[in-house]
Amino acid sequence: MSAVLDVVAAVAILLGALLAMTAAIGIVRFPDTLSRMHAATKPQVIGLVLVLIGAVIRLRGNVDIWMLILVGLFTLLTAPVIAHTVGRVAYREQRGRDGLGIVGDLDRDDRLP
Questions:
Q1: What is the 3-state secondary structure (H, E, C) of 42-100?
Q2: Can you say whether residue 112 is alpha, beta or left, with left for phi > 0 and alpha for psi between -120 and 50 degrees?
Q3: CA 58 to CA 6: how far, in whole Å?
Q4: What is the rounded average pLDDT for all residues in the chain?
Q5: Residue 25 in contact with residue 43, Cβ under 8 Å?
Q6: How many CB atoms lie within 10 A of CB 80?
Q7: What SS3 state is found at 109?
């Protein structure tokens, strides 16, 4: 039973590290702030939660498990708030430069009758 739990913990930690690595690559490769924000929040948070789950499984019976649970809980609570704030600021700052404020792409002459 212990070997199976160790394998599950190792798989969770490796998957979490892989997701965190893809988030880091996305932050470097994506062109603008809004797409970088997506890469910085979703895969990174899920990767951290998977790493924490693997650590909790590996450290079962230890006192430090509650600290890992608190880290995961605070991350899940604060990441959406931070992403929303950064997204609002990026949208306001980039609206005039890259056309984020444009509603329609067609001119009046190009519309269908």
A1: HHHHHHHHHHHHHHHHHCCCCCCHHHHHHHHHHHHHHHHHHHHHHHHHHHHHHHHHHCC
A2: beta
A3: 6
A4: 83
A5: no
A6: 12
A7: helix
Give residue 100's identity as a one-letter amino acid code.
L
% of the chain with per-residue pLDDT over 90: 45
Task: Give the containing element (helix H, strand E) for 35.
Answer: helix 33-58
Distance (Å, rounded) from C-alpha 78 to C-alpha 73?
9
For tokens 């997506």, the residue is 38
How long is the chain? 113
Q: Is residue 27 within 8 Å of 39, Cβ to Cβ?
A: yes
Smallest CA-to-CA distance from 47 within 19, 66, 7, 76 is with 19
* Rg for the chain, CA atoms, rounded: 21
The whole-number average pLDDT for the span 41-51 is 91
In this prediction, residue 92 carries a pLDDT of 77
Q: What is the pLDDT of residues 2-39, one digit of tens each?
A: 899 999 999 999 999 999 999 999 888 988 777 888 88
- For residue 46, report the phi and psi dihedrals to the nearest 5 degrees: -65, -40
